[in-house]
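Model the whole thing, not chain by chain.
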Amino acid sequence: MDVAAVDYWASCRTSFLHRASTTAKLVAAALLLAGILLSRDPFVLLALYLALAAAIVATRLPARRILALAAYPALFALLFAVVRWDGSLLTPSVIILKALASALTVVTVIVTTPSPRLFAAARRVLPGAVAEALFLTYRSLFILLELMDHLLTALRLRGGLRRRRYLRNGRNVSLALGLLLVRGTSLAERLYDVRRLRGHPPLPGAQPMTSEGRRWGPSDPLPIALAAALLAAATAIRWIPAAGAFNGYLLLLTLLALILSALNTARQPSPRPVRERTAPTVQAAVQ
Amino acid sequence: MPDGVLPLWLILLGWAVTLGLLALSARSLGRPERQRRLPLIGVIAALMLVGMTLELAPIGYHLNLTVLGGILLGPAAGFIAAFVVDLMLGLLGHGGITVVGLNTLVIATEVVLGYYLFRLLRHGLGRRLALGPVAACTTFGTLLISTLFMIGIVGVSSIDPLNQAPEAAVVEAGTLSFQNPLGRGALAWELFGPAGHEGTDGDHAGTLDLGAFATIVLALGLVGWIIEAAITTTIISAARRLRPDLLA
């Protein structure tokens, strides 16, 4: 769960999805999620997944890393699939594909939308305190991740993290987390003091993003139209018996879209690589 | 819990209960208290997320630190932190987004129960018990109860992803086929034949084996509870040495 990379992809890269407004992407995601939850056809679910993968590839973001990020819920879905085993591949495939496609839908939104804009949208439905807590969590997360990175580095340099010394490594990481907790609470106190001195102004994520300004722009109709079309196809295949025979065509269409997207991306020059910051891991610190 | 495995009514119920409790929690904090606690809520929620990014074992196990969050924040602020954490996990693809309401209730159980159990064991038994064993027992017991709660939710749901929509008919496997209408037989490819598929009279195609689910979850969870209890105890002991006021 590389939060720093997700934030970088959302904030520092550009694509047709990045240019679309937050509202348009949320509407498109809602339509896709409806199609995913409604569908019981594994071919349709796979088609929706491939359509999302094609969109990710078209944004020229690291598609493999993003697909891997969105594959995590499949582990838990696999557990549910195992306990629902009835001798057929149908139910397990539907369970796992629903989890994968839903996760990829949400991940597509978050890797193309800066988090403060998402939190500003969430403020419309959440209590104000919760929206402010969201923003403060987001802000604190990167500070704590950097602190944790430094702590793990210090542990490694002092021999506190070694291969196959699991108990000792666990204890040392726990102590590091304890120190992180203490420093985190000091950070919280400083944040409170600063905000009190400034008269508790509204947080940037706690009010509508006026910098985004426009409600709808030229990049907005495309994601909504594509999502609506996929929802319509999923609904038709679900409810109209005659349309059920076309599930294979939908799958072929989205596979073709993925291939064309990959070819188009391969033809264009790759963006200039910028060093991404990655989240600290104990394994990386031990090695 | 991932998306697509629980029925719609349960998902909506989870959201309704969670949003209601969120509003109650935010109101119960009060404005001066809220301004003071919000930065701490943000930091503790961020700490939980940092814990979840740390893979401690090759099997991909990660910490929760939810019980720790409950001990430090209390029930109302802890509930807000639990929702924030779960929403961010859902947005990052680390859990279901439609089931954020239900997942929040499970995590909030750990937070709220952790707070009360810690206070009970530490101060409520007539004498002040040692911090280490109290933290360990609190963490272990809380995680056990929250896991049972999650199993209960799954049991109530009667998982059947083939019946997400509220109608009676069940799609039979034999009707799901990859067919080319223009060249019937040329590309005919049936992956899901009727063999092994039961319930052609419209009943569910098999049922959830709740016993197997519970066995797997509890067995895997037991290892996690022990690890989490040990780590939480160490964190609390370290924090008390540096900042005794945190646990006052």
